[in-house]
Amino acid sequence: MLQKPEKSIPLFDCKTTQEVIGQQRFLDAFTKVLNHGGYCQGPETKELDKALAEYSGTKYCATCGSGTDALTLALMAWGIGAGDAVFVSSFTFVSSAECAALIGATPIFIDSDPETYNMDPADLQRAIDEVKKEGKLTPKVVIPVDIFGSPCDYDAILKIAHDNGLKVLADSCQSYGSSYKGRKAGSYGDMSATSFYPTKPLGGYGDGGAAFCNTEEENALLQSCRVHGMSHEDHYDNVRLGLTGRMNTFQASVLLLKLTVFDNELEARDKVAARYDNELSSYFRKQRILPDCRSARALYTINCDDRDELMAYLKEKGIPCGAYYPKPVNVQTAYAKWNTRKVPVCEKLSKTVLSLPMTPYLDKEQMDYIIGCMNEFAAAKQGKAA
Length: 386
Ligand SMILES: Cc1ncc(COP(=O)(O)O)c(C=O)c1O
What we know:
The structure is a single chain. The chain is built from twelve helices and 13 strands. It is an alpha/beta fold. The protein folds into two domains: 17-256, 3-Layer(aba) Sandwich (Aspartate Aminotransferase, domain 2); 262-382, Aspartate Aminotransferase, domain 1 (Alpha-Beta Complex), CATH 3.90.1150.10. The structure holds pyridoxal-5'-phosphate.
């Protein structure tokens, strides 16, 4: 009989980092912001822009209000709009496609690889060919999504995109801290976007995001679009459309502090993932991470044909879990008019994936219990004792 741990098991843990860093340091940082009074895009946001660009190895970073803002700002900076086709993973959080739809472009949904769950480059090529053949839309941008923190096959995707005259906007909203062949998230696409929603690997205490780029021109456009399309010369002349996309300065002060322990937290996530990888029964199919890549382990997600039964069983055992995502974007109500392509792998994944507790702070007792319960389920299914 497996012993339930004394400490309850969280699916995500947004609070423990506060104890690790020390709450007083947050209070001191907040007091500093309170006193200088630059609450929107104050000095801490500029410091964070620099720190994140350095961390990601990009020339520029524009912090903003959310990951959705970051994606939308990048598309706005490139002047994407009506008549443009944006090729996007369908097995993702809605924002990856929403950013294109919001500015009047047409999302074209791309299927996933069944093992990495990320955009399938072969299906991307097919979709670009279909759109070109039909001749109604202009193919402009590809948005691959590093699902659950794991980088996409960027060599293949960038080649297909660039050979066809398209740009790549990497949706690294779940993968900040990951790496792809020596490059860090933020630097994967022609531009990249990330999110600091509290449950993300680098989570703030509220909404936040950042867009990354490497050219001065793109950076100037991101800065302008972030503030309603403001002209850099005349702040009361808005020369393009934009958003209220600024980052709150308190949020920047949180993220600057959280960056100081981020690498330790990524290592701790790696250790949790390694235990799952090594000790979970082979009954559960595990997400494949590409060679020479590190996942930021936003979520640890397995794939199993009895997903709904497993969810009910884990609930009974007091182990939180989540089906991310139970519906790919192409079948969601608001996206019905863009549901023009078959994405069978995404639809299958949405019925079989299950995300397990993943935080840097799961202890041995909690992990023993989760793994023990999972393996007990697998053994019962396979008709043998655990
Ligand atoms: C893949 C992906 N893209 C975009 C977003 C949007 O980020 P935000 O919630 O910060 O707007 C998220 C957030 O959950 C996400 O997971």
